[in-house]
Design a protein that fits this description.
Strand content: 25-35%
Number of strands: 35
Distance between the termini: 58 Å
Structural class: alpha/beta
Strand order of the largest sheet: 24-23-22-21-17-14-13-26-25
Length: 637
């Protein structure tokens, strides 16, 4: 399909392991983007199929022959966007009821899907069985965000860029995409790894970990939330070595690096990044020094782009706020733990960038923190009437460069950044360690928030859907931070099966293990559970893991070498795996065909943890929610 002012340039790559098409979109004449979604291309499933045949021959010829056999992963705009596959006929909610500002947490400006349409971002894929067809946008610091509008009914994909306000010259390249076919999960990961070449960024985080462990530690949020003060934080710091809690046994007893991160609640107001002296009368410098003296890495939460009405900056520098074309402050979202609606800075203003630079210098050099959790980063990519003109993505990159420019503190010690609420495609060069899903929670679901259609709601179930669904990014584009694991019984409604599920999924499919539990409040049963999880970590260590959905919220987990095989059931009800003809093929079926490798492990291997009940017909019933893991080695070794 020809698009005015745009020319598609196609290049075919056919090297070993590098079969792909590269699409570049060139401006044929100068123009300024006036709309949120600037259309650059549109093609049918049939065109996709023809390109695949040219790359792969007949091996992928019938991939798009039946739309009812395809599942779609839309990728997601940012950390909290829906991160799971959509089966035939499934779409995401088009709006959030009651609190419409919450749509900012998951959708970019102008997303607005049509009825029956799936909107995707950055990297999206179609899957048929174990095969994948992937569209991957280069983005990074060179190109604006890419949006995919997928219409299963029309069997069509349209490509847009989000560059409202940008003026292009004739000959400018607006976007660059890769199209490739992957016969299995790990082939997809390997191709993405080769495309984006993130290894050098991962190396900058080496100080956070030991060769035989995942990085991680303590953060205050998921137990205390904003209700923190110096006495409480110091008590938690002291208690880490109190008993056989997870942090002591996994990190301290083995002399592994450990992060100790203070989360939201230390500041006077969001957007006023001064220490609340009522809570921390001695400031944070001495606290960070005490953390460092124990051999831990001091960490601090901040949302650098946000401003609330309670912040002094809102009233002292109203000209620093990003405003819309009517002159009103752009609403960046809603948070009931603050003061409702909140706003964002105009990142095109030099004085705002100076403010951000000075803020980071203060946190790193004056206060002494070396692990910075930068949250709500999507707010830097909201559109507004920028004082400096241009498009949001241009200013976002300048701001991210300033925020992450410090790789060492003033004493030469390394500094790391955790991105959270990050727009993925624009952020991967700056935040190799990133949250890749919605916040977890000490409860499985949040029914009221689910009811209003907020797909990025904090809930353990939603967080697991994202951790599993975005596992293909782990070790390729990001070191995935899946959020915390839970061992406590107090102030936590999760069942033992649910806590086990979170702990094992995060270990197998993530790259960071964080805990918010108060060690002093752990019961004997909590500590016994901790020991059991640590024993499983020993058995599961050293493998790279993949995952594939067998049906909605049911997954086959497997190691690259095939030794470890598992079944994840996120449904509330049991599901049955059957090796025979009785297995259903429907996405929502409760009877599912057993994958061959898993069947072998079930028959000949040993159970590492099992919540499956065998039946005489050879099928197995698996509890929900639960995870079951097996070694494919025979019981004789």
């Amino acid at each position: 399909m020809e698009i005015p002012n745009i020319k598609r340039l196609m290049t075919k790559e056919t090297g070993p392991g590098q079969k792909r098409y590269t699409f570049q979109y060139m401006a044929t004449e100068a123009h300024t983007v006036e709309e949120y979604g600037h259309l650059v291309d549109s093609f049918s499933y049939e065109e996709l199929a023809s390109w695949l045949r040219e790359l792969e021959g007949d091996g992928a010829a019938d991939f798009f022959s039946n739309s009812r056999e395809l599942v779609v992963h839309p990728g997601g705009w940012q950390s909290w966007s829906a991160g799971w596959e959509l089966g035939p006929g499934e779409v995401l909610p088009r709006k959030v009821a009651v609190v419409p500002e919450l749509i900012r947490f998951t959708n970019r400006d102008g997303d607005a899907p049509a009825k029956g349409e799936i909107v995707g971002h950055w990297i999206m894929y179609f899957r048929k069985g174990s095969q994948y067809v992937v569209l991957a946008s280069k983005e990074g610091s060179r190109f604006p965000p890419t949006t995919y509008r997928i219409s299963p009914r029309a069997r069509r994909v349209s490509i847009e860029i989000f560059a409202k306000g940008k003026t292009w010259k004739a000959g400018d390249i607006l976007a660059e995409l890769s199209l490739f076919f992957a016969p299995d999960y790990f082939s997809m990961k390997d191709t993405l790894r080769a495309l984006y070449r993130q290894d050098h960024n991962f190396h900058s985080l080496a100080f956070l970990t030991a060769p035989d462990a995942l990085p991680g530690g303590y953060e205050s949020w998921y137990n205390h939330y904003t209700h923190i003060d110096e006495a409480l934080i110091r008590q938690d710091l002291e208690d880490l070595s109190l008993n056989d809690n997870f942090i002591k046994r996994y990190y301290l007893d083995r002399n592994r690096p450990l992060v100790f991160q203070i989360d939201d609640g230390w500041e006077r107001a969001v957007g006023q990044w001064e220490i609340d002296e009522r809570k921390f009368p001695r400031g944070l410098k001495l606290l960070a020094l005490d953390i460092e003296d124990r051999g831990y890495i001091p960490g601090l939460w901040i949302a650098p782009f946000l401003v609330t009405r309670h912040a002094e900056l809102f009233h002292k520098h109203p000209d620093w706020l990003l405003r819309d074309e009517k002159g009103d402050p752009v609403v960046a979202g809603f948070n009931d733990k603050w003061d409702g609606k909140f706003y964002t800075l105009d990142l095109s203003l030099p004085e705002v960038l100076t403010y951000l630079s000075q803020l980071m210098d203060t946190i790193i050099d004056e206060w002494g923190f070396r692990y910075l959790k930068l949250d709500f980063m999507y707010a830097g990519l909201l559109h507004g009437a920028f004082g400096g003109g241009g498009a949001a993505y241009q200013w976002y990159h300048r701001a991210c460069q300033i925020l992450t420019r410090r790789v060492q503190d003033g004493r030469g010690r390394p500094v790391a950044y955790l991105g959270c609420g990050v727009p993925f495609g624009q952020s991967y060069p700056y935040f190799p360690l990133s949250r890749i899903g919605a916040d977890t929670r000490e409860h499985w679901e949040w029914p009221k928030v689910r009811l209003i259609g907020h797909v990025g709601r904090p809930a353990a179930r939603v967080n697991l859907l994202d951790t599993i669904g975005r596992s293909y990014l782990n070790g390729t584009l990001f070191l995935n931070d899946p959020d915390v694991i839970f061992f406590r019984s107090e102030n936590c409604s999760l069942s033992w099966n649910e806590k086990e599920l979170i702990a094992l999924v995060n270990f197998c499919l993530g790259s960071q293990l964080m805990v918010s539990d108060d060690p002093r409040r752990l019961t004997r049963e909590d500590l016994d559970f901790t020991g059991r999880i640590l024993s499983l970590y020993e058995k599961l260590a050293g493998y790279e893991y993949g995952v594939q959905a067998l049906a909605r919220e049911v997954y086959h987990l497997f190691s690259r070498c095939g030794t470890i095989q598992g079944l994840i059931n996120l449904r509330r009800r049991p599901i049955r795996l059957s090796p025979g003809e009785k297995a259903g093929s429907d996405w929502k079926s409760a009877v599912i065909k057993t994958p061959t490798q898993l069947e072998t492990a079930l028959q000949k291997g040993g159970a590492l943890v099992s919540h499956g009940k065998p039946y005489p017909d050879g099928s197995m019933l698996f509890e929900g929610p639960s995870i079951s893991l097996y070694s494919a080695r025979t019981n004789q070794g």
